[in-house]
Write a structure and sequence with these properties.
It catalyses: tRNA(Pro) + L-proline + ATP = L-prolyl-tRNA(Pro) + AMP + diphosphate. It comes from Populus alba x Populus x berolinensis. Pfam families: HGTP_anticodon (PF03129), ProRS-C_1 (PF09180), tRNA-synt_2b (PF00587). The protein has 546 residues and is α+β, with helices and mostly antiparallel strands. Among the domains are: 201 residues, 2-Layer Sandwich (BirA Bifunctional Protein, domain 2); 103 residues, 3-Layer(aba) Sandwich (Rossmann fold), CATH 3.40.50; 67 residues, C-terminal domain of ProRS (Translation Initiation Factor IF3), CATH 3.30.110. It has an eleven-stranded mixed β-sheet, sandwiched between helices. A hairpin with an 8-residue loop joins strand 19 and strand 20. The two termini are 39 Å apart. The N terminus is likely disordered.
Length: 546
Amino acid sequence: MVSSLRLPSLTSLFSSPYLRRPPPLLRRPHHHHKLSFPPPLTTAFSSQTTSASTTENPKKQTNQDQKVITPRSQDFNAWYVDIIANAELADYGPVRGTMVIRPYGYAIWEAIQDYLNAKFKETGHSNMYFPQFIPFSFIEKEASHVEGFSPELALVTIGGGKELEEKLVVRPTSETIVNHMFTQWIHSYRDLPLMVNQWANVTRWEMRTKPFVRTLEFLWQEGHTAHADPEEAEKEALQMIDVYTKFAYEQAAIPVIAGRKSKAETFAGADRTYTIEAMMGDRKALQAGTSHNLGQNFSRAFGTQFMDENGERQHVWQTSWAVSTRFIGGIIMTHGDDSGLMLPPKIAPIQVVIVPIWKKEDEKTGVLNAASSVKKVLQSAGIKVKLDDTDQRTPGWKFNFWEMKGVPMRIEIGPRDVSSASVVISRRDVPGKQGKVFGISMEPSILEAYVKDKLDEIQSSLLGRATSFRDSNIVDVSSYDELKAAITLGKWARGPWSASDADEQRVKEETGATIRCFPFEQPQGTKTCLMTGSPAEEVAIFAKSY
């Protein structure tokens, strides 16, 4: 069966200079004659293959094939793309705006899934799956929804070689098809609450793309719930944004600010949208997760009703909430440095890498045996360990490679360490000699306790560092001039706000900044709107964003 897509114009796709063509390490092989890219700025490398023609002794390959990462301070976007390439997180797909998530990148997504899946089930939700293709008439039923998503829709018009009677939308989100099914499943108050989640892919025809942050297709989870009353729906929406907030702080070590979106920034079809906003290393905001109180907007559009305890027909109250692979981009841009990726231990696919070191052949067996023993000790303690025992790379090359991959801790074992029954431990978050400790005993109970304690320290250190960076780049403002000055400096502006939607649009047009949220945590005391001088009940946070 052959299907075809009739899609919106691609004129502006990949408008970013870094996304028009892959970086050097993502270049296609030369036999792909239809692709033309600039000459490489650095030599591509792989942890899995070694070119035998470069040298007779692969252990002498020290610098010639080492990766190069653009300094973060020089070009943040180029630095970001370099890390994705060099850390083997993703590659470009054959369709512009798409990406292939490589095993290491997908392993980070699996860590996110593992945590959230457990939390969803703890809070009473069940996993299921809805179809990827949605009748276009479903999208049209909720007016604000179709208006909000129309520019991003991918439409199927031909299937099986024939024109379809009704065009199909490739899932941009699932509120419409979920309501169609909820209408068939919900009849009585006894059927409520109905709380489900799905792990799926989503297609949105973005015109400006950035790997992980904004792509035509991405992976996410989307939760959907139906309730008998508005209070229960509101409680659910707030509960789920709290789940996301705890994940950000406790697992990803990202100090997000949770709050409510402005009316202009609210999800199309929702009464209220709650969000977690994260500050990236370039001080732009990243919307890292959202939870929507949908009210009865979709249930009225689809006729999703139930018989209440008094025998009267009522429309259900609903929520939807989602986190996507965008979070991986947030982790990169929050914690990474000029050496590469830096992963919080709780979501790192590899928490500890062991690098054995020997010079003479008669030292090799003893060193490898000791390294294997250490690996078994740590694995039995539930620590994710990698033993890099290949002899095709020098120890120095391995140090740089695993630092670039963001592995939180490195253990070095050489002949002297074997003799003293000890190891050398280096922390990824503390570069150079300051992060290296010698003489840690190989005795299982001592080593296990030390490694676990240091992994906890690294997790806390990354959160503390990101929190300090965030707080030092938020400016409290009391006037529009102060707001503009703060945004010009690349900072976030926090100030009282009660102005109109038109005023909010003016700020966006004149500064490029939007209201990221009205934080849940609000300062006490009387407030005066920074724009109008009228009384204000809340402060808002303004920032440029991804």
